[in-house]
Amino acid sequence: MATDVHRPVTRHAVHVEGLTRSFDGRAVIDDLRLDIAPGEFVALLGRSGCGKSTLLRILAGLDRDITGTALVPRRRAVTFQAPRLMPWKKVWRNVLLGLPGRPERSLAERALDEVGLGHRVDAWPKTLSGGEAQRVSLARALVREPELLLLDEPFDALDALSRVKAQRLVGELWQRRGCAVLLVTHDVEEAVLLADRVLVMTGGRIAHEQRIDLDRPREITDPRFAALRARLLERLGVDTAAA
Ligand SMILES: Nc1ncnc2c1ncn2[C@@H]1O[C@H](COP(=O)(O)OP(=O)(O)OP(=O)(O)O)[C@@H](O)[C@H]1O
């Protein structure tokens, strides 16, 4: 088994080749190939259960039971659908959780400022709204100064308005930080809004990829936006005529 995970890479932010992950003899990821360039924003779409989260967990280093090659930078960070905050730690301590050594509180303050939560540094997690909690988890990712940011459906649990705000924030952070992003999402519109390239995963592989060559900020009212959205929905097997 050639598990070549987590060596530093330079030319790519992610280099995956011949990656396979099986559960109970069934390959959920099947000979998958994927490259992400430094600073590139990639969105990953696919039907429920197609293996998106499994791939993300592998890239995050949380699942090493693989065959094939998966090279990612050492400085990487991941956020999940749920913010996963420790309720007995204040917000700033949650942000610094898991960092080596004795990181300074000011690090957390800076990251929280960046996500618009400078005023909630000393708050307890239970006093946060869903959108705020998700932003804390984003700050926890940013404090690691990632070259690769892995986002697993980070906006899914949010109401429509918080979702739009959070999407905008992620777009701004990405532009400011210049890190590569892999965003797993169910939402085709979100993918077209944010990504340089959208991947559609089927049968454990990347079955389709679509470059999004629209200027930013993007307008969903742009006919080119609608055309890309329709093409991706088609690739996902959604009947757009009936939608
Ligand atoms: N630890 C596990 N043990 C057994 N099967 C698993 C395990 N983790 C994932 N699977 C299976 O692998 C498949 C892919 O799961 P995964 O969570 O990666 O899908 P997904 O594309 O992220 O789905 P969703 O969009 O619903 O989140 C599913 O059939 C799931 O049941």
Automatic annotation (TrEMBL):
SMART domains in alphabetical order:
AAA
Q: What is its EC number?
A: 3.6.3.-
Please state every residue range assigned to the domain named ABC transporter. 14-228
Give this protein's Gene Ontology molecular function annotations: ATP binding; hydrolase activity
In terms of SUPFAM superfamilies, this protein maps to: P-loop containing nucleoside triphosphate hydrolases
Query: Which Pfam families would you find in this protein's record?
Result: ABC_tran
Q: Which keywords, in A-to-Z order, does the entry hold?
A: ATP-binding, Cell membrane, Hydrolase, Membrane, Nucleotide-binding, Translocase, Transport
The protein here is known as Aliphatic sulfonates import ATP-binding protein SsuB
Q: Which gene encodes it?
A: ssuB1
